Amino acid sequence: MNPSPARPANRKTAARTVSWRDVEPAGVVLISGPEEYLAHRAKDRIRSLVRGIHPDVELTQLDASSYAAGQLTMVASPSLFGESKLVEVASAAQMNDDFLADTLAYLKTPAEEVTLVIHHSGGTRGKKLLDAIKASGSPVVDCQAMKKDSEKLEFVRAEFKAARKGLEPAAGQALVAAVGASLPDLAAACSQLISDAQGTVTEATVDQYYGGRVEATGFKVADAAIAGRGAAALSMLRHALATGLDPVPIVAVLAMKLRQIAKVKSASVSAKDAGMAPWQFDQARKEARAWDSAALARCIQLLAETDAQVKGAGRDPEYAVEHAVRIIASSVARH
Question: What does pTM read for this prediction?
C-alpha cells in the first residue's frame, strides 16, 4: 500500500511545505520551483523510498506539455498483478489543457497504489491545479533557486552534516567562493570532499582541491580590490579573464561587496537588517573601516557604469573591469 496516499479535500487546508531533503512518498507530491538540481534530488529521494517499500514498483514518466488525454487514468489504473506505481510528471509549468483537466479529476479520487510526483518550475500556468494540490494537504517541496551566498553556504553545511563529516566554517566559505556559481558543481564538490578528504575539511583542504578555481573567481579579485591591494587584484583579474571568466560576474561581485559595505556603515544595522549571513556581516564591517562614504558612493556609481560597458555598451569589457578595479583599489583609505 502507498505509504501515505493523498485524499480528496472536503475543506481548504494550508499547504504542507516540506524540505527536499525530508520529503516522504505520498499519493500526490508537488515539487515547486525552478531549481532543477533540487527537484532532481527530491525526485530521487522519493523514488528511492518507494522502491525501498515496493521493489517492483512500476515507474512511468509523463510530460505535461505533450500529454494526451486519458494517459494519467491509464497509467494509474490497477495492474493485473497489483504492483505499486510511481508516476513522475515533468514540464508542469507548460501543462496542456488535457493534463490540467485529467489531473484535477484524478485529485478527487487518487489511486491507492500510486505515488504521483509533479514538478512545476514556476509561473501561473495550471494555478487551479496547484491550488487544488495544496488544498488537499499533499506535500509541497519548495525548490527555489539559491542565489545568495548565505543560502549556498547553508546548503554546503547541510550536505556535510547529513554525511556526518566535519567542516570548518572558513572551509565552507572557501568552497562557495570556489565553485558556488553552479549548484550542481557545488554539490559535486561537497560529495568529492566528503568522500576523499581525511578528517575534518579545512580551508587548506578546499584550497588543495579547488585552489586554482578559488584564485580565479571574482570574489578573490573583489576582496583584494576592496582591501586596497591593487597589484594583487589586477594580477588575479588578468588570470581570471585569461582562464575564461566573464567580466560580467566579476563586476556583479564587486558591486555586491560595495553594497554590503554601504549597508553596514550604519552603526545600528544588524546582519538580519542587512539581509546578510553573520560571517558576511562581520567581514563587511571590517572592510568598511577603510572606506569613507564619498569614496564608496563614487565607486558604486563607477560600477554601475562599468556594468553597462561589460554588457555591451562599451567596446572593451576587459579594459572596463580592469579600470574599475584600479579605481576601487586606489580609493581605499590609507591609515
Answer: 0.63
Do residues 178 and 206 make contact, with C-beta atoms less than 8 angstroms apart? Answer: yes
* Distance (Å, whole) CA 244 – CA 329: 23
The one-letter amino acid code at 10 reads: N
Distance CA 46, CA 34 (A): 18
Angle at 135 between CA 133 and CA 139, to 5 degrees: 55
Kindly report the backbone phi and psi dihedral angles of residue 31, in degrees, each rounded to the nearest multiple of 5, phi listed first.
Answer: -100, 115
Assigned C-alpha cell, 86:
510511481
d(CA 218, CA 110): 51
The SS3 call for residue 315 is coil
Give the 3-state DSSP-derived string for 181-237, with helices as H, strands as E and coil as C.
Answer: CCHHHHHHHHHHHHHHCCCCECHHHHHHHHHHHHHCCHHHHHHHHHCCCHHHHHHHH
Residues 6+ apart with CB under 8 A from 286: none
For helices 183-196 and 203-215, angle between their N-to-C axes, nearest 10 degrees = 140
Residue-wise pLDDT for 237-248, tens only, equals 887 787 677 888
Residue that is written with C-alpha cell 565607486 in the block:
299
The conformation of residue 167, written as its DSSP 8-state character, comes to: B
d(CA 258, CA 247): 17
**Residue-level pLDDT at 13:** 53
Render pLDDT for 100-125 as a digit per residue (tens, 0 to 9). 999 999 999 999 899 999 999 999 99
Q: Render 107-166 in DSSP notation, one character per residue.
A: HHS--TTEEEEEEE-SSSTTHHHHHHHHHTT-EEEE-----SHHHHHHHHHHHHHHTT--
Q: What is the number of other CB atoms lying within 10 angstroms of the CB of residue 137?
A: 18
Dist. CA 84–CA 329, nearest whole Å:
63
